[in-house]
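ok, trying the design again with the full structure, not the truncated one.
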């Protein structure tokens, strides 16, 4: 049976034959965390996923949020915070509790059901108090981390401004040590002020709209990822970057020490399970060269997603002062001509047909924020169980743990840059800055194999310049300058979009041809599983049987394009319904599966087999 049934779902047809019910083996428990004021916003919606009912203020995304740079000690600040409409003046007196509008559950964005607020605010202010654990050394520096805040953030500690940040998708942090009271002096006050103009602004925002309908979805303002504290020594590893070479078995390690000195050194050990398989030593400014045995080297692929675990230590005169855990993998993505002269995508030296599905990363109860880590993992598992080997992450950048699960489970990722209007020099500069941050933050994940800079002409400008820039920033991945519509002849891919399609670009000896989006069949679920009765889709079908047959027909055409024109990849639209758009293979609440999973998986696997062997 499929992974869906084995791991988490009972699957069976309803008498109508229109849908399949996906029911969790472990029934969700608990109740809604906060009473919602349904009159607060016309956008409030009580549709939930099975994981949403398990949410509790004391257990909100408790997992360590940065899996590729792990320390032992940290303090999760998720939970109940005070909030208020940010159009009122910022508070200076922490005892003035009456000036706040209520409580909000962090890290869920204010517009979501799980936040307990259920309204969009262009400006919003958050407040909470915290006390440092007594076990933390008084000599440590304290870092305040934000996984993601949309869009412009100002942070105060104990009434003093710590810093600012602009960008809705990248993680950022501040050293707040000099702003803190000691643990004996009482709790510290943290205030976060956020401004997010959404579609009234010039910043990258993806599919967010203040007037959501069709392909445009609810806005996400404010904090939407984990907030946390971390103690670090005076000399610490701010980052560690790995550059594994699949051909040679050498990993080049670039440590980033906060204040590098000549008497600081770095040691690195690599483990395969419990066995140490390689080590390296060098100065704190690096790089370190770590050599693996080529005869026993294990590569990463969707079929065998092997990860090597790393322990990195910073030493001061041979005395360890900091230590982090991380991981990396050996894999190579490139292009090569097949025996017919078509340019194809290879993974680890072998042609791999990229059979993908679009995932927009929205949740009915959390909007941009999944209700739990288990929910994140299950979406990826469902896609894999249906026979897809690629998820195209569409116009959204996910939290680090989403990519971690793709790394762990073996799912390739085509990563879109979130779009913006980009009509002014300032907007274009902000787009470029956030594009660079995306590449820098996600380059640690072996699952990510392709960057898409622009989607269907939205905000497209200076495409050739960006393709060149991205290629220099990250030569280890493929670059797609423009997904659909406006191709200017640059990048590794020529990518067409058509619904239902499929329709591919003409073969090009220098670039590979893919279909970045096709399908879009709309099967509307029952009302109990709908976000709104005002549904939308590309092409409506009456039942599950028709949807499945249409999908079969599309794959017959895909296989013809593979054989006759060297098609290298195709991405179906889409994995999950999103709000009013009902083009998903599952309902928005992840309860209904619209197709028979085992038969569906066979179709995808056969197309991949044909694409690999042609």
């Amino acid at each position: 049976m499929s992974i869906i049934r084995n791991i988490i779902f009972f699957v069976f047809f309803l008498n109508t034959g229109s849908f399949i019910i996906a029911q969790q083996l472990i029934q969700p428990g608990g109740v809604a965390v906060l009473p919602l004021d349904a009159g607060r916003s016309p956008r409030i919606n009580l549709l939930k996923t099975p994981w949403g009912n398990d949410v509790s203020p004391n257990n909100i995304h408790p997992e360590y949020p940065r899996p590729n740079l792990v320390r032992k000690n940290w303090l999760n600040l998720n939970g109940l915070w005070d909030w208020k409409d940010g159009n009122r003046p910022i508070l200076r007196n922490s005892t003035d509790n009456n000036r706040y509008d209520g409580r909000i559950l962090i890290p869920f964005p204010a517009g979501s059901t799980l936040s307990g607020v259920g309204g969009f605010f262009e400006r919003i202010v958050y407040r909470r108090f915290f006390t440092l654990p007594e076990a933390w050394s008084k000599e440590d520096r304290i870092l305040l981390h934000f996984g993601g805040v949309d869009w412009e953030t100002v942070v105060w500690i104990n009434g003093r401004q710590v810093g600012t940040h602009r960008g809705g998708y990248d993680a950022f942090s501040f050293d707040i040590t000099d702003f803190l009271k000691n643990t004996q002096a009482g709790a510290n006050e943290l205030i976060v002020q956020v401004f997010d103009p959404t579609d009234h602004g010039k910043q990258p925002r993806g599919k967010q709209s203040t007037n959501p309908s069709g392909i445009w979805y609810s806005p996400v303002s404010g904090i939407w990822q984990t907030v946390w504290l971390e103690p670090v020594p005076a000399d610490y590893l701010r980052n560690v970057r790995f550059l594994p070479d699949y051909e040679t078995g050498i990993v080049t390690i670039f440590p980033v020490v906060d204040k590098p000195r000549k008497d600081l050194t770095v040691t690195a050990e690599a483990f395969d399970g419990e066995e140490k398989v390689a080590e390296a030593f060098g100065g704190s400014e690096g790089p370190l060269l770590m050599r693996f045995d080529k005869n026993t080297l294990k590569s990463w692929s969707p079929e065998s997603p092997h990860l090597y675990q790393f322990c990195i230590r910073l030493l001061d005169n041979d005395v360890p002062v900091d230590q982090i855990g991380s991981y990396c993998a050996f894999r190579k993505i490139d292009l090569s001509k097949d025996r017919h002269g078509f340019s194809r995508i290879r993974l680890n030296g072998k042609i791999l047909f990229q059979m993908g599905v679009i995932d927009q990363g929205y949740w009915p109860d959390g909007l941009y924020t999944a209700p739990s880590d288990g929910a994140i993992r299950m979406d990826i598992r469902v896609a894999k169980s249906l026979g897809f080997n690629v998820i195209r992450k569409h116009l959204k950048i996910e939290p680090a743990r989403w990519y971690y699960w793709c790394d762990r489970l073996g799912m390739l990722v085509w990563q879109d840059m979130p779009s913006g209007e980009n009509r002014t020099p300032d907007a274009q500069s902000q787009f470029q800055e956030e594009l660079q941050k995306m590449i820098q933050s996600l380059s640690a994940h072996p699952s990510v194999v392709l960057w898409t800079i622009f989607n269907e002409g939205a905000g497209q400008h200076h495409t050739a310049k960006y393709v060149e820039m991205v290629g220099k920033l990250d030569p280890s991945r493929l670059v797609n300058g423009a997904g659909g519509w406006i191709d200017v002849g640059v990048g590794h891919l020529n990518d067409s979009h058509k619904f239902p399609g499929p329709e591919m670009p003409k073969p090009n000896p220098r670039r590979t041809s893919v279909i970045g989006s096709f399908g879009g069949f709309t099967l509307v679920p029952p009302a109990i599983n709908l976000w709104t009765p005002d549904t939308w889709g590309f092409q409506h079908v009456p039942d599950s049987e028709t949807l499945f047959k249409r999908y079969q027909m599309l794959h017959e055409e895909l296989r013809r394009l593979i054989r006759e024109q060297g098609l290298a990849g195709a991405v179906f639209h889409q994995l999950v319904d999103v709000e009013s758009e009902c083009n998903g293979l599952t309902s928005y609440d992840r309860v209904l599966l619209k197709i028979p999973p085992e038969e569906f998986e066979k179709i995808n696997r056969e197309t991949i087999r044909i694409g690999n062997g042609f």
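Keeping the full-length input from now on. Residues 335 and 345 are 5 Å apart (CA to CA).
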